[in-house]
Amino acid sequence: TVNNGALCIGAASRILGILASTMSRWDDAEVHFLDAITMNERIGARPWLARGRFEYARMLMTRDGPGDRRKALEQLDQALATFQELGMKGFMEQALALKLRAQGIDPTVSQSSIDAVAASVYVDKPDLRQHAAPDGTVTILFTDIEGSTEMTERLGDRRWLELLRGHNAIVREQVAAHEGFEVKSEGDGFMLAFGSARRALQCAVDTQRAFARHNESAEEPIRVRIGLHTGEAIKEADDFYGKNVILAARIAGEA
């Protein structure tokens, strides 16, 4: 027995937009993608609407004309929200990687622990309002070990894990001493939140001093990078995690 079925691939204009993009016919591609977005929104084809927004953003990033990155970020924010809600993990990861590129971070090139933590919290979007200052701001602090990839290869798994445990203990001791909150940690990377910019800055200073003391007698010195940025957590989560968190991560990456 053969049952009849139906397959929906959304508006045909999306396919035309992809085809025009491969031929570098950017203006035609933009018209097709916008038509597809309008149609898929009208018929309620949410997976295809999100994919159309993502593919339109990818075209804008490739064209890279005046204002294209701003428009791409707007499309990616909406696509990411839908991908996350519908559990489209593969597309969510692709869209997040493209958004990081649009914000000046290339996740395909030597991604650091800080980049990994920043990408992870963008997906999770933990609510930090309870850790905010009275004016609604939160100071984000990122830290990781400088040259950790090379150290891992040189030390081997056992010695690296021992060093990592010592590193993590020092970081967490300083976070507790300065009333911070550990938002996320992956490997040697930490994202921390503070309701006071002064406490966050003092935590950064004291953390560096703690590692300096540790290094005086350590067989393997640990050098850490730290970056901070203050933003308003009361705003929309996409805005906070799309701007303030990424900026703090980039500052730490340049430290």
From TrEMBL:
SMART domains: CYCc. PROSITE patterns: GUANYLATE_CYCLASE_2. One of its GO terms (biological process) is intracellular signal transduction. Residues 139-252 form the Guanylate cyclase domain. Pfam families: Guanylate_cyc (PF00211). InterPro entries: A/G_cyclase, Adenylyl/Guanylyl_Cyclase_3/4, Nucleotide_cyclase, TPR-like_helical_dom_sf. This is Guanylate cyclase domain-containing protein. It comes from marine sediment metagenome.
